[in-house]
Automatic annotation (TrEMBL):
Listed name of the protein: Costars family protein ABRACL
Costars domain sequence ranges: 1-79
The organism of origin for this protein: Cirrhinus molitorella
Family to which this protein belongs: Belongs to the costars family.
GO BP, one annotated term: regulation of actin filament-based process
Length: 81
């Protein structure tokens, strides 16, 4: 799969699973994304796709890398509508 396509799929999944935060941006907890069956089937490397999307300024999250369990409550915020 190509990275652009995976980032587009990630945006769709954040919209599906997330909700608007106080700033009006769509946000979802990393743990929700990671544990979702549909996401598990779509992404071979969710963390890699998240990093690529962050580099492209499509999403934002605190830190450089998100790990299951440790970062389950970290917000992944969609920057582009």
């Amino acid at each position: 799969m190509n990275v652009e396509h995976e980032v587009t799929l990630l945006v769709d999944e954040i919209r599906r699973l997330g909700s608007k935060n106080a700033d009006g941006k769509i946000s979802v907890k990393f743990g929700v994304l990671f544990n979702d069956d549909q996401c598990a089937n779509l992404f071979e490397a969710l963390v890699g796709t998240l990093k690529a999307a962050k580099r492209k300024k499509v999403i934002a999250f605190e830190g450089e890398l998100l790990l299951q369990g440790v970062h389950d409550n970290v917000d992944v915020i969609l920057l582009q509508e």
